[in-house]
Amino acid sequence: MAALTTTAVVPVSPRSVGGENGQLSLLDKSLETRVNLTRPPDSDNELIKVAALHGAPGMLAVMRARKDYSWFVVLCLRAIEVCIGPRTGKLPVLQACDPVAFSMQMLEMEMIDEIFQVMKDYEHIKDIQRAGLAIIETLVNNDADWRDEVARKGGVGLLCEIAKQRQTSPNILGQVMTCISYLAAEDYIEVMLCQHDALEHVVYVLRQYPKNKELVMRASLALLNLTVCEPHIEELMEKDSILPVLQVFDSHPNNVDLIVVLCGILANFSAKPDVQHLLVREGLFPRVRDAMLLDPHNAVLQVACLKAFVNYSTSADFYMKMEQEGIPTLVGQVMVDHPNDPGVQRFGNYYLGQHTSCPIL
Predict the structure, then answer these.
(1) In this structure, are residues 63 and 34 in contact, taking their beta carbons and an 8 Å threshold?
(2) Cα–Cα distance measured from residue 132 to residue 161, given in angstroms and rounded to the nearest whole number
(3) What is the mean pLDDT of residues 147-169?
(4) How many domains is the chain partitioned into structurally?
(5) What is the pTM (predicted TM-score) of this model?
(6) For 11, 94, 274, 360, which has the most beta carbons within 10 A of its beta carbon?
(7) Which residues in 93-122 are b (16+ Cβ under 10 Å) and which e?
(8) Residue 244, exposed/middle/buried by CB under 10 A (0-12, 13-18, 19+)?
């Protein structure tokens, strides 16, 4: 029997594959042209055409027929999201679909029941949660009827449950915060949200993601609407959840848009004397004073800061502390700089002269 001979294997270097200056590429170039059939781009999602041409009734029938397949549910929800969303002009088929009429059909058919159900059935699939939240966000944006429908059908509890499950997902949390902020614009839904611990989820975001500018903006808008009711401020105080607002303030000291919202929250907080003392002790006055100096010509910013100060001006002790910071002089200068702005004049007068308490600003 002939003896076996061993053969040396010479490793191929990247340079020998790509030439003297070449580089070894481990990527399959065909990936660029492949289409993921379960997550295709909108141009290849045939269900968008179905939704656009047959409306909400057609889309609901299709989704019910194949809702046992998670990938199919993702495509259905994306089709609904596109049909009720703003038009970009990239999909000509959407010209046949009126987003307002589509959403009205959804409302008449109580289609949100089906959407909520698949969001619960596939709570472990992030794409379904994302698409479902995007639909809710669009529907409740500026429509009181849809806010009522979402709240009546259990949407408040669903949102808070998603916030609890997705605490490590900033993108999902951002969607939840936006939905909460829109829903809380209705007083009775504000109460419902707090009954489902919405305040806890909002404060969690402020504590865990203080440097995430977009996320804290959404959470701050939600907190602004959730603190119109004074008992909710008391709840925050009892849970030591007042100071995260100042922490966000410190993380974004030059973000005018965010500071305007934060000042609105601080104005709501100022309706409670015990919260006033806590905030003053933690340095509220110099923070808001510095915010006023960020952009003296911005009337919106100045009004927001004045609202944050007004209720403190009724206390002699607080007023003396503000004098030490030069705030009364600054308020007077703001009124001189904005003589024709009704908001500046109104709250400036409250601060300097009338000493009228403003429970909800």
Answers:
(1) no
(2) 14
(3) 97
(4) 1
(5) 0.85
(6) 94
(7) ebeebeeeebbbbbbeeebbebbbebbeeb
(8) buried
